[in-house]
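Researcher: Structure prediction, please.
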Amino acid sequence: MQDIEILERKTLAENAYRLELITINQIKKGKTERHDREVYFRPNGATILLIDFDRKTVLLTKQFRLPVFLHGEKDQLLESCAGIIDEGELPEHAIIREVEEETGYRISEISPVAQGFMTPASVTEYVYFFTGKYSPEMKVSEGGGEESEGEDISLVELSGREARELLLSGKLRDVKTILLLQHAIIQNLI
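Model: Predicted structure follows.
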């Protein structure tokens, strides 16, 4: 383990979440290096690939994402259902809540896949990955996300074949969705 000394912390912004400039001394191979790092303190999240195991379909969400647009992508982002874990909430409970908010499906059967940092160089968020069972009879509401949060989410149901083709074509741009679809293919879930 490298020796780290935090020299200074400066809040650059504190709107939805805090962005800090942190100055550190890092001792590597006996030499001290000084670095400035911007760190975005974002809550942990959870994501899930919804699978209808009988019909061999997956359910994805599609919505506008400003950073994606700013990167030059004009289409809405196709992605697995995801959301922030509220303080004191378990990842499993958070993703079940998010599924109902975003898709309108009330699910109960989920399985953990993986967990980890998505952008460890600059964002504190830790993400929990799941697969979960859905079927048409589990639809209990319209879904679409939380209007108060500016969400306008549509659903895209794909056959396993369509999902594989989309993955292999390189057209998917969301890493969490790529990871979950790869898992589903490797495990023969779709």
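Model: The chain has two domains: 3-41, 45-186.
Researcher: Thanks, that helps.
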